[in-house]
Amino acid sequence: MTKQVSNFKFYVFAFILSISAIAVSCNTQSSNREPEKCGGCYGKGSALYTCYICSGSGIENGHTCSKCKGDKMVYDKVCKVCGGDGIQYN
To answer: Are 80 and 40 in contact (CB under 8 A)?
Structure first.
């Protein structure tokens, strides 16, 4: 029974040591990476698309488009580059 307890303690110690090494590694890697504005959405968190209401004309039924407000483009879908955060890490 003593040998089993000793083996168990060794495996628990090895597991904790492994987890500690992973945590230190993750912290080291993330601290070296600087956040910057996403190049895919320019920090907006969503990608820029041609307005689907006015088809990029800026006018809807003779008036300024209600979706794009005349800008012809809309930030509508979550950016695939940053996942909607608006930032990237180098």
So the answer is: yes
Phi-psi domain of 86 (left: phi exceeds 0; alpha: psi -120 through 50; beta: other): left
Expressed as residue numbers, the domain containing 84 is 35-90
CA 68 to chain CA centroid, Å, is: 25
Q: How many domains does the chain have?
A: 2
Q: pLDDT, tens digit, for every residue of 16-39?
A: 656 666 666 555 555 567 889 888
Neighbours of 6 (CB within 10 A): 10
At 56, the amino acid letter reads G
pTM, two decimal places: 0.41
